[in-house]
Fold this protein.
Amino acid sequence: MSYSFIGFFGSKGKGKSTQMFRMRDEYVKQSKQFKYDLNNPFILNGPITHTYFVSPTLQFDKTFKKNDNNDTIQVEGTKDNILELVQKIRDMKKELQPVMELQLQVREFFKKSKNLAQTLDRQTAILVVNVLKQIENMKQKYPELIIDETDKDIISNLKEFYSLLEGKAILSFIRMPKIILILDDMSSCSLFCQVQENEFYKMIIQQRHLNIFAVFIAAHEMSTLYSAFKTQLTGFLLFQGINYEKMKDYFSQVQELQSDYFSMTDFMNLYKYKICAAHEKNDIEKQKYVHKFLYVVICPTSKVYEGFSIRLK
């Protein structure tokens, strides 16, 4: 799965928050199918390591309490708290980057080493010990990022190296984070609406460089978002409660939808009859075809639909 910035739009109580958590669970599940590659540490791979849930009404949010898996980091959605979170994510990348570069070199050293007892010189040993100490410092600060070494050659040489130092072998390293950011009902926050660029906006447009794998944002209308955020969307979900006239805004966001075979009227009717009208309580026949939302994928990948059609509709 590729980097995502997905909007969830619709009236209050229509399931936006619930679907964000379901999508989060699906992302986490699929990410666990891939092992983190210590040989390519700057390619965002492996399992999700952090989920941040930001809401202006966190203490009253029943959906969060129902869907929380104890791994989610809660953030009260004030402007100061959001900017503090932005700085935290930036600091994490800033601290880890140089240590990860050194770690890559140290692992390469242990991968190629032969007979350390005979070939290891004092200066090299001091340099390696210094790097290992820096790695341990990062592991203590970010224990959720510890990852076991699996390369047999590196493990063997690590054991030999620690035996020469008469110490207990440490067979783990540190990895880069992989973050999901959930922003629930944040359209009233000035960071999402003001015209001038701010640190939060910069984080969003730089998300792949800050190890943010996915951003989910919920709002009543897409129009409440700062226009620059709209251009970052890789997809959006439309729930009940959206004014039909405003559907034109959603259609205009996706140039790929517009063709001789699919008009704005087709798009509006799709939403009207599949998402809204089909929810009439007394129409059992229509309810057979009911969908809770319309999911528009702007930047599809080969696996974007995998697992979603049944679980999330």
Observations:
- The CA atoms of residues 97 and 176 lie 8 Å apart.
- The longest strand covers residues 212-219.
